[in-house]
């Protein structure tokens, strides 16, 4: 039986642990957080059909049921708005993700903290906290040994780096793989949705997802999260994204009130409701995220060490594909290691096939995120005018809307060959 060491207890690493244990493979997760509840990030994620499909493949039935039970209310579409709150075009839900009878082929709004709790459920004996990874070495028989800052170590058959865009596993395993500053920074904010805020919030902002296009090198994304059960703790996620030069050189040193003040200075000509939205977000729920992206590395020879998620194909959150791609990695690596564990593939071949496929779809997602980011910050007056005009035409002519927007959601989440094969054999 294989023993797999996973460095990093984020969404991708935990999904991999669930998938491996579901297939009878020993998996241990080593997480630098000191305890289970250290992470307090409570932001909405959009799980697309690729993410749903991957979660269904990795999760045991009780956890899959818990996932579907704790998702947010669907619906609302995706609106492209002007800074005056005029709707340029509204893309309906059925166009983004056509309804499917299979729950694993649907899109879901989820709370990141809640999803992580679902992924942790049943892994109490597998997750080791307060384990900061420092380095690995290979034993005489080629097995990896991970060394941690507290002086402990662990040896397994495979070591997986799921430790984020600043991955220490990747830095040692693939020292020539680099990441770059995208030139943009994002500020996340949350507005509680209650009777008071709903009383003044414009109806379009209180529904679905929206992108406020400004014709300036900054934009605002909003997304509603309303729980189906348990009821309560609803919120509007906001992400203000701007070019680096519009903020101080070290924006992470600013507190929530200071970050809001910088945003306020940039949106003086926005609709009063948008300015109020920023003003009423509690400062304690404001965080800053410098946007980085991984450079596409040259192919490498497979070994007993590999990487997944942001550790290899980190991307800005524009388009919402980071978590979905990490989940897809977890499902594919689970499949490949299961084939190795049952003797159907030699271990190096299993990992090599995973890495080849992962590089293809992973960096497709990176490229899409970068294009989406640049489109949002578009400030050339001619391009901005043409885009607004086309969006307004699409809002009137449904075939144009379908042609323009349908592929952008469908392509990135469409089943790949191995996913279709898994569906046929399940």
What does this structure look like?
The chain has helices at residues 11-22, 49-58, 61-69, 93-96, 112-120, 168-173, 195-200, 256-266, 272-280, 310-313, 322-341, 347-376, 381-396, 398-413, 417-425; strands at residues 3-7, 26-30, 44-47, 78-82, 87-91, 108-111, 127-128, 133-138, 144-148, 153-155, 158-161, 179-192, 209-216, 218-225, 235-243, 287-294, 305-307. The chain is an alpha/beta fold. A seven-stranded mixed β-sheet has the order 5-4-13-14-15-12-16, sandwiched between helices. It is globular, with a radius of gyration of 22 Å. The model has no long low-confidence stretch (mean pLDDT 94).
Q: How big is the Rg?
A: 22 Å
DSSP strand count: 17
| Range of helix content | 40-55%
Give the overall shape, derived from the CA principal axes.
globular
Strand order of the largest sheet: 5-4-13-14-15-12-16
Q: Classify the secondary structure makeup into a structural class.
A: alpha/beta
The fraction of residues assigned to DSSP E strands is 15-25%
Largest sheet: 7 strands, mixed
Mean pLDDT across all residues, rounded?
Answer: 94
Distance between the termini: 23 Å
Q: Helix segment count?
A: 15
**Which spans have pLDDT < 50 for at least 5 consecutive residues?**
none
């Amino acid at each position: 039986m294989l023993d797999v060491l996973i460095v990093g207890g984020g969404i991708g690493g935990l999904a991999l642990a669930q998938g491996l244990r579901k297939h009878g493979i020993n998996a241990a997760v080593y997480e630098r957080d000191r305890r289970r509840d250290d992470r307090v990030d409570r932001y909405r994620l959009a799980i697309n059909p690729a993410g749903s499909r991957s979660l269904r493949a990795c999760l045991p039935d009780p956890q899959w049921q818990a996932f579907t039970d704790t998702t947010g209310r669907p619906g609302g579409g995706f609106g492209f708005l002007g800074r005056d709150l005029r709707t340029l075009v509204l893309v309906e839900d059925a166009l983004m993700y056509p309804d499917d009878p299979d729950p694993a082929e649907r899109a879901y709004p989820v709370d990141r903290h809640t999803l992580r709790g679902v992924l942790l459920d049943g892994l109490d004996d597998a997750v080791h906290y307060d384990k900061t990874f420092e380095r690995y070495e290979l034993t005489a028989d080629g097995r990896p040994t991970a060394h941690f800052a507290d002086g402990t170590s662990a040896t397994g058959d495979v070591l997986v780096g799921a430790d984020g865009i600043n991955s220490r596993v990747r830095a040692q395993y693939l020292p020539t793989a680099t990441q770059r500053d995208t030139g943009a920074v994002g500020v996340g904010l949350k507005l509680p949705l209650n009777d008071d805020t709903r009383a003044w919030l414009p109806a379009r902002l209180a529904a679905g997802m929206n992108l406020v296009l400004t014709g300036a090198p900054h934009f605002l994304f909003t997304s509603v999260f309303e729980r189906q059960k348990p009821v309560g703790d609803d919120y509007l996620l906001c992400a203000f994204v701007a070019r680096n030069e519009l903020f101080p050189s070290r924006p992470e040193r600013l507190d929530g009130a200071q970050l809001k003040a910088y945003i306020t200075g940039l949106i003086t000509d926005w609709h009063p409701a948008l300015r109020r939205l920023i003003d009423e977000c509690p400062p304690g729920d404001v965080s800053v995220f410098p946007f980085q992206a991984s450079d596409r590395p040259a192919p490498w020879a497979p070994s007993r060490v590999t990487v997944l998620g942001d550790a290899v194909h980190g991307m800005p959150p524009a388009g919402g594909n980071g978590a979905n791609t990490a989940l897809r990695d977890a499902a594919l690596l689970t499949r490949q290691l299961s084939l190795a564990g049952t003797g159907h593939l030699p271990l190096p071949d299993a990992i090599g096939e995973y890495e080849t496929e992962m590089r293809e779809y992973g960096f497709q997602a990176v490229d899409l995120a970068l294009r989406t980011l640049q489109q949002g910050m578009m400030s050339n007056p001619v391009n901005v005018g043409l885009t607004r005009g086309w969006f307004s035409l699409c809002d009137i002519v449904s075939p144009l809307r379908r042609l323009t927007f349908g592929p952008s959601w469908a392509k990135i989440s469409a089943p790949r060959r191995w996913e279709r094969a898994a569906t046929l054999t399940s």
